[in-house]
């Protein structure tokens, strides 16, 4: 930092202050009289603040124009810091607060009082690894976004999360988190319980993300406004409990990385009138969508627009999805056990995007839905596997296709001339085809009059042959305006 910031008496904007040694022109008291500061202020290296009095000397409570405050200790700091954080209470006008690498075991009272933070909209707590409990943020009336990241000591979200314990009687059942809309929990390896609040809470919560919390087995039962859920690398019990509930407002569900989960309820697809997007990713044991009915009818719903099943090596069954009349995007890839797809991929004709490939080595030919069903298809990604040495011949029928990606064909040597039938193609991407050497002929490439972008990624031989002016295939692509080789 420049020495003597405190002498700039009219300073209004200072986005970052790095604390140095006391009485050297770099101490935190340099901020004492800078009460005109506004906007965002990051304070770093707070371990150099010697005591609470010096922290209070920064006069953050007297800076009404600050709307965002970030309080950061160094990553390797081992000082407790609780008294310092107590003295760094911001002005009531602050709306966004971030605390990072704080080493205290608890948080100061001002973080829990509605009178101290009445206008607080967003709080982020990160790498506070000695804190065993989160502060009672449930009492903050304006809080809309809460992010809790990388906190190793937290084992439970209990009553202390909703109230600071000073309330009694009717006050104890005051709704908690009345304005919260986004709640993110990431990398809490020892979190086991998220207890039910004593009163109706989270009434406005729309977006819930839980990631890398493998011990968590319980959570509240009521989220009346929940629209989006992301569950990644967590205990399968959480997925099962949420799937059993009727979440009437849910429009987006992403689940992935649950090591023991084998089945998902079919009702996530069947007659779901609200869900718009469902993503299932990287389930090592996931096998199927299971129904209580032994002979289920085709899935029917009017709402699902996007369905993704990716990285599920044991997937062996998939429901008939012809009834998904609103489906616009379908992704089925990296499911190495899937060797019979013809029947299952009877798709709705509404598809605009299809991602498909990466299947069982037993599957010698590339499976495609009936091309007559894909009259509106505009974006296609085909992914090969070890048994695939040629591009699927059905590709030539997608004359309205605008974007095509050809990926992971390990033994593909050349692209077919039938590619020239894709007269509407605007973007062509070729990825991870290690031995690919040749594009279609110059005449065929010239027929792709709409082609604006060509991407050649991780295809070393083709990249060399298409090099500007020197490659043997350069004359085939020289007319394309946007070329990228990587």
Question: In brief, what are we looking at here?
Answer:
The protein is mainly beta and 486 residues long. Helices cover 8% and strands 24% of the residues. It has a domain at 389-486: Ribonuclease Inhibitor (Leucine-rich repeat, LRR (right-handed beta-alpha superhelix)), CATH 3.80.10.10.
Give an overview of the whole structure:
There is one protein chain. With 486 residues, the protein is mainly beta. The chain has a domain at 389-486: Ribonuclease Inhibitor (Leucine-rich repeat, LRR (right-handed beta-alpha superhelix), Alpha-Beta Horseshoe). Helices cover 8% and strands 24% of the residues. It is built from seven helices and 25 strands. The strands form four sheets. The chain has a 19-stranded parallel sheet. The radius of gyration is 28 Å and the shape is globular. 33% of the residues are buried. The mean pLDDT is 87. Residues 28-151 form the R13L1/DRL21-like LRR repeat region domain.
User: Helix amount, in percent?
Assistant: under 10%
Distance between the termini: 40 Å
Total DSSP helices = 7
Task: State the oligomer.
Answer: single chain
CATH class of the domain at 389-486: Alpha Beta
CA radius of gyration: 28 Å
By secondary-structure content and strand pairing, the structural class works out as: mainly beta
Ranges where pLDDT stays below 50 over 5 or more residues in a row are none
Return the CATH architecture of the domain at 389-486.
Alpha-Beta Horseshoe
**Overall pLDDT:** 87
How would a crystallographer describe the biggest sheet? 19 strands, parallel
Q: Which topology of the domain at 389-486 does CATH recognise?
A: Leucine-rich repeat, LRR (right-handed beta-alpha superhelix)
Count of β-strands: 25
Work out the strand percent.
15-25%
Morphology call? globular
The CATH superfamily of the domain at 389-486 bears the name: Ribonuclease Inhibitor
């Amino acid at each position: 930092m420049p020495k003597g910031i405190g002498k700039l008496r009219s300073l209004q904007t200072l986005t970052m202050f790095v604390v140095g040694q006391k009485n050297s022109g770099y101490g935190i008291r340099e901020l004492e009289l800078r009460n005109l500061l506004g906007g965002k202020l990051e304070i770093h290296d707070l371990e150099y603040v010697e005591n609470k009095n010096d922290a209070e000397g920064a006069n953050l409570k007297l800076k009404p124009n600050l709307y965002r405050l970030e309080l950061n200790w160094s990553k390797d700091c081992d000082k407790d810091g609780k008294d310092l954080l107590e003295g760094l209470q911001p002005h009531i006008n602050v709306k966004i607060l971030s605390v990072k690498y704080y080493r205290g075991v608890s948080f100061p009272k001002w973080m829990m009082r509605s009178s101290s933070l009445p206008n607080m909209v967003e709080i982020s707590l990160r790498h506070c690894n000695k804190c065993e409990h989160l502060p009672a943020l449930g009492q903050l009336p304006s809080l809309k976004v809460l992010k809790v990241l990388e906190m190793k000591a937290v084992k439970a979200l209990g009553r202390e999360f909703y109230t600071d314990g000073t309330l009694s009687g009717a006050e104890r059942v005051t709704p908690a988190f009345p304005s919260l809309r986004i709640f993110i929990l990431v990398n809490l390896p020892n979190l086991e319980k998220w207890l039910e609040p004593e009163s109706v809470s989270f009434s406005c919560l729309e977006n819930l993300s839980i990631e890398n919390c493998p011990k968590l087995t319980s959570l509240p039962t009521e989220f009346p406004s929940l629209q989006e859920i992301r569950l990644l690398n967590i205990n399968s019990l959480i997925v099962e409990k949420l799937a059993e509930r009727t979440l009437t407002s849910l429009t987006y569900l992403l689940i992935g990385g649950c090591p023991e989960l084998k089945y998902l309820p079919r009702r996530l697809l069947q007659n779901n009138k609200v869900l718009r997007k469902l993503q299932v990713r990287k389930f090592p044991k996931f096998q199927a969508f299971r129904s209580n009915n032994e002979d289920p009818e085709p899935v029917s719903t009017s709402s699902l627009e996007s369905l993704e099943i990716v990285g599920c090596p044991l997937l062996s069954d998939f429901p008939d999805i012809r009834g998904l009349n609103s489906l616009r995007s379908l992704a089925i890839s990296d499911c190495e056990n899937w060797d019979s797809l013809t029947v299952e991929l009877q798709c709705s004709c509404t598809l605009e995007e299809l991602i498909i490939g990466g299947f069982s080595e037993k599957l010698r030919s590339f499976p495609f839905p009936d091309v007559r069903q894909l009259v509106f298809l505009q974006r296609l990604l085909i992914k090969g596997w070890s048994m695939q040495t040629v591009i699927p011949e059905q590709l030539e029928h997608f004359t309205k296709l605008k974007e095509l990606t050809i990926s992971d064909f390990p033994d593909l040597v050349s692209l077919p001339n039938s590619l020239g039938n894709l007269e509407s193609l605007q973007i062509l991407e070729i990825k991870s085809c290690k031995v690919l050497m040749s594009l279609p002929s110059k005449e065929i490439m010239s027929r792709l009059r709409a082609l604006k972008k060509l991407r050649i990624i991780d295809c070393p031989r083709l990249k060399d042959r298409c090099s500007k002016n020197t490659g043997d295939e350069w004359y085939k692509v020289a007319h394309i305006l946007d070329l990228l080789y990587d």
